[in-house]
Amino acid sequence: MADNNECIFCRIARKEVKVEVIEESENFLAFPDANPISEGHTLIIPKKHFANIMDLPSDLGSEIVGLIKRVAEKRIKEGAEGFNLLMNNFEAAGQVILHAHLHLIPRKKGDKIRLKTA
């Protein structure tokens, strides 16, 4: 699928919008969430435009898992005691930006963060 010129995540991936890069691989980029739920809340996006996980090629699975692990290890070294992975797919599930992205949300015991799950 071609990049969407108006998509904020495509613009970030093309370096048109500056963000602090936490981790990067050939096909993925990790950077801080603009509206964090917790300290260290990180977004992980594919560099190419895929609307959601259904569009993401399966052969990129090990690459994204490796990036998730590197970000999680970094957050744990910074003091997180655990983390949640969250991905909304399609508007009905709460996806606002229609470019596939994962939220890695660092957690600490007793932090009182409550994530809604269906």
Subunit arrangement of the protein = single chain
How many distinct domains? 1
Structural class: alpha+beta
CATH fold-level assignment? HIT family, subunit A
CATH superfamily: HIT-like
The amount of helix comes to: 10-25%
Number of helical regions: 2
Order of adjacent strands in the largest pleated sheet: 1-2-3-5-4
Rg from alpha-carbon coordinates: 14 Å
Q: Beta-strand percentage?
A: 15-25%
Major pleated sheet: 5 strands, antiparallel
Global mean pLDDT: 94
| Count of extended strands | 5
Top CATH class: Alpha Beta
The helix/strand order is HEEEHEE
The CATH architecture would be 2-Layer Sandwich
Task: Describe the 3D structure.
It is built from two helices and five strands; from the N terminus they run αβββαββ. Strand 1 and strand 2 (28-32) form a beta hairpin. The chain is globular. With 118 residues, it is of the alpha+beta class. A five-stranded antiparallel β-sheet has the order 1-2-3-5-4, with helices on one face. The protein has a single domain (8-107), classed as HIT family, subunit A (2-Layer Sandwich).
Summarize the structure.
This protein has 118 residues and is an alpha+beta fold. The protein contains two helices and five strands, in the order H-E-E-E-H-E-E. A five-stranded antiparallel beta sheet has the order 1-2-3-5-4, with helices on one face.
